[in-house]
Specification:
6 helices
Amino acid sequence: MIKISKEFKVGLLGLISMAMLYMGFNFLKGKDFFAGSHYYYVVYDDVKGLAPANLVRVNGVAVGRVLDVRFMQNTNPKLNGRVLVTIDLSQKINMGKGTVAMLNSTLLSGTMIDLLLDTKAPYVEYDDTLKSAVTPDIMASVQEKASPVLAKADSVMIKLNSLLGEFQGIGTTTKNTLTTFEKAAKDLDAMLAANQGNLLAGTTNFKDLSNDLKQTSKELPVLMKKMNTFADSLNRLQFAKTLDKADKAVGELNTLLGKMNRGEGTMGALMKDPTLYDNLTKTTAELNKLLIDLRQNPQRYIRLRL
């Protein structure tokens, strides 16, 4: 039986530990020793914080990791100052010459590479360099979209400041106006205080007048009733009928006088006496005066009680 010395066991254990440490370190860097390796290269101007072990995706599915990120200098003038990124795919993917390695940076997921596949042949070989592109940075996009808004905001602020300046002038005018109103109010108070006695007397007079009008309104129905009674009494007088009879009597008297003038009848014979003619003439005149006075002043002959 072969004896294994302790030194050999310690050395073997040390080698195994170092190998596991190396494999674990590389695994943390994104290199899987148990999966196939397919290396490709991508050149960027700016990797936006891309680091080894960051994901490489196709249509949102992780197909590999970033193996190395290296800044290039003192090399080809076209590549000097640029960044070389090595990616390791865990499976073989047919990628045409038009495949683009899009560098994508998000706030939640960090920075990663999304492969925009070109499935048409010819395909790229291992260790080939893929085309590169960078998704616009979110902050840059926000800044780009916000710039016009900020410019408009500046314009609005300028107009607002101008408007506030105008309002300041209006405020001064308003203040002066309010001062004038305040002075007018004080003058009005002084005038009211000076004429308080007159206002009180006027108020009392208005009160008395209101009471008188109230009393008059109460007496008005009684007065209207008396007026109606007076109107009824006038209607009962039948002035029109009385005047018609008077006119008829005058007509008959005129007829009689005509006959007398013509010498007809006994009265005609009597008219030849001048004294009798004069008496009749005076009587007719007095009768006419009586009728006229009756028309103009009926209250002298008819008494009305209200």
